Amino acid sequence: QVQLVESGGGLVQAGGSLRLSCAASGRTFSRPAMGWFRQASGKEREFVATINWSGGRTYYADSVQGRFAISRDNAKNTVYLLLNSLKPEDTARYYCAAECTSCITTVQAMGVPYGYWGQGTQVTVSS
User: Fold this and answer.
1) Count of CB atoms within 10 A of residue 25's CB?
2) How many CB atoms sit inside 10 A of residue 125's CB?
3) 3-state SS of 45-62?
4) Which 3-state string (H, E, C) describes 16-51?
């Protein structure tokens, strides 16, 4: 089991920045890939970004490419998502996710089965 706790969300004006954090605990020795997803009100959850264990590989949704940056500090068991040049359409609840190869139910993104989820943190961008 992996437990995930997100923080760092809030209200920001368009063009502003936020840094989201996701603290992981539990079975982190399995070296999972980590990712961020988001879900806007009335819409389906969508992939945002992913990073492998070493941090050497990252992938982004086209909608955030060049504006968001995912990173991780394995010594702190924490993954980050830096959100720059925010737009009102970035308003959503952002969820941290961890790879799970043994989970029955997973969400596939960039070839990674995500099975552990945090509770999310709300990001609201005002125009």
Assistant:
1) 11
2) 20
3) CEEEEEECCCCCCEEECC
4) CCEEEEEEEEECHHHCCCEEEEEECCCCCCEEEEEE
pLDDT band at 39 (very low <50, low <70, confident <90, very high): very high
Beta bridge partners of 94: 38, 121
Side chain identity at residue 63, one-letter code: S
pLDDT in tens, 72-92: 999 999 999 999 999 999 999
Give the C-alpha separation, 35 to 50, whole Å.
Answer: 4
Q: How many Å apart are CA 45 and CA 58, to the nearest integer?
A: 19
| 3-state helix, strand and coil shares in percent for the chain, rounded to the nearest 5 | 5, 55, 40
